[in-house]
Sequence to fold (454 residues):
Amino acid sequence: MNLLTATALVMGNIIGGGIFLLPASVAPFGTVSLVAFGVLTLGAISLALVFGKLARRHPDTGGPYVYAREAFGDFAGFLSAWSYWTMTWVSNAALAVAAVGYVHVLFPGHQSRGVDLIVALAALWLPALANFAGTRYVGAVQLVATVLKFVPLLFIAVVGLFFFDPHKLGAFHEGGGSTLGGLSAAAAILLYSYVGVESAAMSAGEVRDPERNVGRATVLGTLGAAVVYLLGTVSVFGTVPHDKLVHSTAPFSDAVDAMFGGQWGGTVIAAAAVISIVGALNGWTLMSAQSPYAAAKDGLFPAAFLTKRRGVPTFGVLAAAVLATALTVINYLIGSGGVFQILVLITTFSATVPYLLAAGAQIYFLLTGRRDRVRPGRFARDLTLALIAFGFTFWLVAGAGYAAIYQGVLFLFAGILVYALMAARRSASRERGAEEPAADRAEPAEAEPAAAVR
Fold:
């Protein structure tokens, strides 16, 4: 993947389906939510810069897993890979279910549960097929999908500024409580808007000139997503009356209708949302295979995850697609919404574990003198960025909520059993390898009497 494709991968993974509901989600807190978005953007850019620094040091596929293992050992690396892997395939199932809602807007009418399931499974498996075709096809789909969703969103964000009416804004802080409380409450909803910032680092082994391009793609992709997020939210706030926005189920559609009249905005935004989700699924399907592939190379995941074709770990893609399919089937056929919601809560916590370990790894590398001979000024700058990224990620953990942390920790610790099995297998393999040379050394000793006779 070149710089443009890697940037599209980052931007496409960050911008999924959630952006189309974000303005309505934070509207109840007032325009203070725009301040929260700005603060979060600074934190996300700091994290992006840290990933760029780490990728320059270790330009290998696996990203956060590679950094955690290099800094803190096998167990930390495994926890990073396990958390990231579970987060990807569970969130893929959630994205597929979200796509069904937008398909209903495009094709109104009665939809049966069976038809919804077929649509969701198509949303899962079409990106998987693109991944099976190889990295080049993944990059092509990602580039096209990113352009098709970025252009209309940016168009609404920019054109909406010309229709901006400050009288349609709500108060700076809506509701009771302090302004700081409103800022924190809005930030808690917005925190996961930038999950995906690590996408280029995760696929560093498939990026051309990764020492240079991974960092650039990470920052450019994050900045591109930030522009769409911030300008889009401002435009919607200034075109849709606040009392209507609070109860809106399609804020961008309402903004289009307010700007140009008519009722066609919903169709346009629904089409953009479907493209956005499919593009995100394309990128996240690749991410779901990269982390276990890197861990399998070190014996921390089953060797089957090493199966690779045309730059894509195909077994990892298949495993993630099958697991996401199982969750989707449970959601539609069994109707076990409670189980599905619990698993989605797990992803909100699981996404933060690799980030926290990666930021900690950068701090460790800097403080232990592994600075690649950087100048003191750069050392201070890099350490400051790493501390900001760590604080931002810690804020992500706090914003996940008690239920997400509780469920996430249980699922994270369940991975210890997998680690124990893989560690036992590696230990047995090392013991067998140590015994074989010992036997080889014993053979010359048995031949010594015969040599003496001759």
User: Anything to note?
Assistant: Residues 162 and 189 are 28 Å apart (CA to CA). Confidence is low (pLDDT under 50) at residues 441-454. The radius of gyration is 24 Å. The chain is about 80% helix and 0% strand.
